[in-house]
Amino acid sequence: MIEFKNISKKYGRYSGLEDVSFTLEKGKIYGLIGPNGSGKSTTLKIIAGLVHPSKGTVLVKGTEVNRRIAKEVAYLSELDIFYQPFKVKDMIDFYASQFEDFRIERANELLTFMKLDPDKKLKQLSKGNRGRLKLVLALARETSVLLLDEPFSGLDPMVRDSIVKGLLSYIDFENQTVVIATHEIDEIEPLLDEVLAIKDGKVIDWQNVENLRETKGLSIIQWMKETFKE
Ligand SMILES: Nc1ncnc2c1ncn2[C@@H]1O[C@H](COP(=O)(O)OP(=O)(O)OP(=O)(O)O)[C@@H](O)[C@H]1O
């Protein structure tokens, strides 16, 4: 579904990714784990067609990423910059006008689940509620690729668990490839099929989560501590 072939990304003198190759399959949920600045967001942005690699080829559904294929990718950015005068419901209408795969009924259901008032102005939303709105906008799309960059930032720990459970009902386990970059490993662990460890722009390890648990007896956190120990 998603193929990285020898991808490097340079930002001027700085390196974002270095010769990264992998294949992500349909129907799986992947976690990208790594320290700050390791290349997680760069990876997601390349899949979403927002950043162009300096070297290598990226295929999404067998096609080299272009504007058409990028429109089939739902991407939740780590940034939350919204057009301030909009109300929540204006944002829903805007997304519906931009993406053919945006399902308004689903968005309204998600707004209720996230306890967001459609009539509230975006500038009046707390950071946590902006985070919830970002999730609504990404999950209301019926796409084959769903990319979530730090989807729980700003959400208080008390609600994260219930939001993760809610997430489950909006993921199409058969057909979607979901990639989540996060530091909130505890919350996300029950969702993940595979984890990729990224460090200094390289994938340094890759594990199947069930295998990690059953054959090595490790949780993702334990594996992560071993993988990233200096
Ligand atoms: N627009 C940019 N201009 C210059 N350097 C950049 C830019 N975006 C990313 N980088 C650099 O590329 C590297 C990878 O950044 P990236 O944002 O992909 O990391 P990350 O793993 O998502 O980090 P974080 O966990 O802090 O979000 C870092 O060294 C970063 O400073």
What features would you highlight for this structure?
about 230 residues, alpha/beta, Rossmann fold, six-stranded mixed sheet, four-stranded antiparallel sheet, 10 strands, globular, binds adenosine-5'-triphosphate
Bound molecules: adenosine-5'-triphosphate
CATH class: Alpha Beta
- CATH evolutionary superfamily: P-loop containing nucleotide triphosphate hydrolases
Taking Cα atoms only, what radius of gyration do you get, to the nearest Å? 17 Å
Q: How can the largest sheet be summarized?
A: 6 strands, mixed
Instruction: Note the beta-strand portion.
Output: 25-35%
Mean pLDDT rating: 92
Write down the overall geometry: globular
Number of strands: 10
Distance between the termini: 34 Å
Tally of separate domains: 1
Estimate the helix proportion, in percent: 25-40%
Side by side, the strands of the main sheet go 6-7-8-3-9-10
User: Which architecture name does CATH use?
Assistant: 3-Layer(aba) Sandwich
- Give helix and strand order, one letter per element, not per position: EEEHEEHEHHHEHEHEEHH
Number of continuous helical runs: 9
The parts where pLDDT drops under 50 for at least 5 residues are none
CATH topology: Rossmann fold
The helix/strand class is alpha/beta
Walkthrough of the structure:
GO terms for molecular function: ATP binding; ATP hydrolysis activity. By secondary structure, the chain is an alpha/beta fold. It has one domain: Rossmann fold, CATH 3.40.50. It has nine helices and ten strands. A hairpin with a 2-residue loop joins strand 1 and strand 2. The model has no long low-confidence stretch (mean pLDDT about 90). Adenosine-5'-triphosphate binds next to strand 2 and helix 1.
